[in-house]
Design goal:
There is one protein chain. This protein is an alpha/beta fold. It contains ten helices and twelve strands. The strands form three sheets. Strands 6-11-10-9-8-7 form a six-stranded parallel sheet. Helix 9 links the parallel strand 10 and strand 11. The protein is elongated. The two termini are 37 Å apart. The model has no long low-confidence stretch (mean pLDDT 95).
Length: 284
């Protein structure tokens, strides 16, 4: 498995703090009813999936009680199978019960994202195309979902509005033309900031190339127009296809010769993975 860049610790900590506050509030009334004896639980997966989210899972238990110990039998980026034990969790029973839902919510959601991404990456295997995410993420979970995309074998597009320029249809309309928008971007953007421009037809593509664009987004072009765009560009710029991409048509899009394919559905059309945390006989 490719080594994954770990998520920033502060991001994980803040995500989990917010989630626990939402769920626990000023106390877990139900967990308070059980004896706080040592307990052991096993986490099982019920779906074929790509695992993602273990740092958030661990942090949920850590923030409730640092005496909780987790032993993982799989790691982020691994393909896991129905019935497989993913980890064992040991610690005070109340802490395990209080942390369980928050920990599982992160793991099932991020594993769902990674699993979806993995299917798209598999579909384009053998082509030059690389699968990218978008900014269509769950609010507040941008870093987490983009980490899950990497776990699934995809790559990240810009993190937000601050780390790259993506000139889209409305920006072009406001600027007056493709050329004017690109000139404005070069004039006002900091050195080294990536600049990409969206085009909707071959005339705009020609204008973008003549204006020195180095990365161009092909927005909702037909397969035939994508192929013509690849030929016209002749590797003078990298091309990204976007719009209407599904698991059923992504292979055909990749075979046009584009460099990247960005898909909003990777992070917004996911299905959470089915997980089950089962308590075992308490250890003494």
């Amino acid at each position: 498995m490719t080594t994954l860049l770990p998520p920033p610790e502060e991001v994980v900590r803040t995500d989990v703090q917010r989630a626990l506050q939402e769920d626990v509030g000023d106390g877990d009334r139900t967990a308070a009813l059980v004896p706080d004896d040592p307990a052991l639980a096993e986490l099982l997966v019920r779906d074929e999936a790509v695992l993602s989210g273990t740092p958030w899972f661990d942090e949920a238990f850590r923030q409730v009680d640092r005496r909780v110990h987790i032993t993982w039998m799989a790691q982020d980026g691994d393909t896991v199978h129905p019935g497989q034990i993913l980890c064992r969790v040991e610690g005070p029973a109340r802490a395990l019960l209080t942390s369980e839902r928050t920990a599982l919510n992160f793991l099932q959601t991020l594993s769902g994202t990674a699993t979806t991404v993995s299917r798209y990456v598999t579909a384009v295997h053998g082509t030059r195309a690389q699968v990218l995410d978008t900014r269509k993420t769950i609010p507040g979970l941008r870093h987490a979902q983009k980490y899950a995309v990497r776990c699934g074998g995809g790559q990240n597009h810009r993190m937000g509005l601050y780390d790259a320029i993506l000139i889209k249809e409305n920006h072009i309309a406001a600027a007056g033309s493709v050329r004017a928008a690109l000139e404005r971007a070069r004039l006002l953007s900091p050195p080294g900031l990536p600049v990409e421009i969206e085009i909707e037809n071959l005339d705009q593509l020609r204008e973008a190339l003549e204006s020195g664009a180095t990365r161009i987004l092909l927005d909702n072009l037909s397969l035939d127009l994508m192929r013509r765009a690849v030929q016209l560009t002749a590797q003078r710029a990298t091309l990204e296809a976007s719009g209407g991409i599904t698991l059923e048509n992504i292979r055909a899009v990749a075979e046009t010769g584009v460099d990247f394919i960005s898909i909003g559905g990777l992070t917004k059309h996911l299905q959470a993975i089915d997980l089950s945390m089962r308590f075992q006989t308490a250890r003494t």
